[in-house]
Amino acid sequence: MKKTKDSAYAYAYGVVSSMTGKLVDEKTYDELARFRSVEEVLAFMEGTDYEHEIKKVVGKTIRIKDVENALKSHFIRVYEEIVSSIPDTDRAEFNKVILEGFRSENLKVVIRGIHSGLGSEKIIETLETSMDSKLMAELAESKDLEEFTEKLEGTEYHYVTKEELEKYKETGDLLPLENAIDKHLVNSWSKISCIEIKEFTDIRTDMINIMTILRCKISDIPAKDYVIYGGTLKEHLKEIEKGDVKDVLSSLDKTSYGGVAREAMNEYEKTGSLVTLEGKMESDVMKYLKENAMLKPLGISSIMLFINAKRREVKNLNTIIVCKHYDIPAEEIKEILM
Predict the structure, then answer these.
(1) Among 171, 186, 279, 317, which residue has the least CB neighbours within 10 Å?
(2) Are residues 230 and 186 in contact, defined by beta-carbon separation less than 8 angstroms?
């Protein structure tokens, strides 16, 4: 008897369901933020699913870098367990979306860090958990972006970044390099056949485009060369890219992204940063996944929802531990948690 798509996901759904109940909740984050030391936080974690990794780094001396690596190792272990439960037909496409997404974000983190003159250790601290941490660590040690590009030789991102390096040298603007990475990422999704995964990549493409267009408008750069024609907004992009910021917001009001974009731009006027927009759009992605997972629990959205939730948990625990190490007050820690 041939398996249906739903029955093929029954095992994966079972794996994720058993893990979902163990995720750290908001009340626990509040309690952890109020713990007095790193040691207390780690003692708590030894009684959780993190025990296997945490026990290896707890001793007379606790090195924060070792703890951060333990958290990353935990995420990779969980990720691999979940991916191995996904039907073979979707596994490669799932990895392409999730792992390529992490890789592209990490490349941009490294680029920004080198451009800003951060040391390699600081850059590595801010990287996403990924399967290619060794490469990212090597890239983070680059003295400049020319060396960064040279170190990418042998990877698919070498020519992607090399072609835009001259534009960066001429203008000092990271947009051409970051946009080239984004375009390569979206292009890598072009042959995805799983409908649920394709819908997810369309939303990710929308996020990239909205961030890019607003960034161009704020910096008075023509957006046309940087727009990626795809996603759910593809019919609106030519209209959205025209005019000034107010025109962009008016155009986005006709889409589901209008409210998020306006909230973020209000925040930008106060802070001069688009970080809020990125955070709000991530929340929109989570909302989309939750709605899809409720409608179709035996599907890819349930798996993606958990991966995103686990990623958030690892980031928050890492933030709490680092803040405890530097004696940051509990109220300030709570404000910066995702």
Answers:
(1) 171
(2) yes
